[in-house]
Predict the 3D structure of the following.
Amino acid sequence: MSSESADRDGRTVWDVVVVGAGPAGASAAYAAACTGRRVLILEKAELPRYKTCGGGIIGPSRDALPPGFELPLKDRVRAVTFSLNGRLTRTRRSRQMLFGLINRPEFDAQLVEAAQKAGAELRTGVTVSRVEQHGSAVPDRRTVAVVLSGGETVLARAVVGADGSASRIGAHVGVKLDQVDLGLEAEIPVPPTVAEDWAGRVLIDWGPIPGSYGWVFPKGDTLTVGVISARGEGAATKRYLEDFIARLGLAGFEPSISSGHLTRCRAEDSPLSRGRVLVCGDAAGLLEPWTREGISFALRSGRLAGEWAVRVAEAHDAVDARRQALNYAFAIKAGLGVEMSVGRRMLAVFSRRPGLLHAAITGFRPAWNAFAKITRGTTTLAELVRTHPVAHRALSMLDGGTEARDANGDKGAKGGAGTKDGADAKGTEAEDRDGKGKDAKAGNG
């Protein structure tokens, strides 16, 4: 427990204040509270609250959870149906669970409860308007002032910004973005006969817009159906979702929730701290660029932010605080940063050649095995590219070809529907011989 819990005027000074109670914020608060420090979470909404999110829990997410955390799984995925803009459908199956599916309201609330059990305190219904590290609101150079919308000031030795992709803390730090995508999603209640058909199986559809894809994630009596593509393609993305739902045979069911969300990936030189303020998760632009998977990045970066925020809080001068913040940035870049670099390369290849990827993952056993290992968490895409010569050469060849075409001004293929990529995947619409059971087509919903 910190021995300096008040300033000279008797005001409470928290060791660490975490802004945002999503997976990144709750993970940061848990990590900091486990050290015995005084930790406060500030959340603008009342919990639980809905978040636009597929809710897939892959191996890295599971491994980053607090010890003993019981996942509120709605389903366990052992089969994946792949399609290329609704065509060339094939299902691959696994004897082991690939990943789990959760609803964010329950998941986030449980993470916050874990942080509270570790000693963190929670305030909901409060909006942070800004943070100040200099000026009249700051009693000394070791303190950060977190100013709330009502004018109240909360003092801390360190602040973690985990307030989402439109982060005010990220703006304070100066986070720079180089990829923004629009995700649209519908939560569709379905009757038991439809739910049974989807149980244990998800659908991934490589979409008609470069870099886009859609998904169906079953969660009991509800299907989470969504699509994502680059921002600026809003009308086309909306049409994709509408066509996708209709193609699945789900247009006759009324969604209980329809929502949209912007995901933002950081530029490689984007800062992760400023003074005694760190950012993590979506607030830092940390997510996988190709799949736009964010939960594992939130949990892992949140844990690191919480651990290093404690060290920042203990720093007695600006030089030491800066050193600890740089150590946090190094830890992020050495792990998640490497994964993001490979993800950017994969997105560039996928945007031009979705059919090639579809053909590989549905017709080439090593590609499917790699997908299964990545989702289970036994390896990462970056690790595969680094350690497997074939994977390294394949990505380098495709990546190099992309760069060469870019240099020649070639705009490339606009999705897989009418391109050579469609021919690359020809003949893959068949039952997976490794699987046990009937192939589930994209239209089975």
Q: What stands out?
A: The chain has 13 helices and 18 strands. The first helix runs from residue 23 to 33. The two ends are 54 Å apart (CA to CA). Residues 401-445 have pLDDT under 50 and may be disordered.
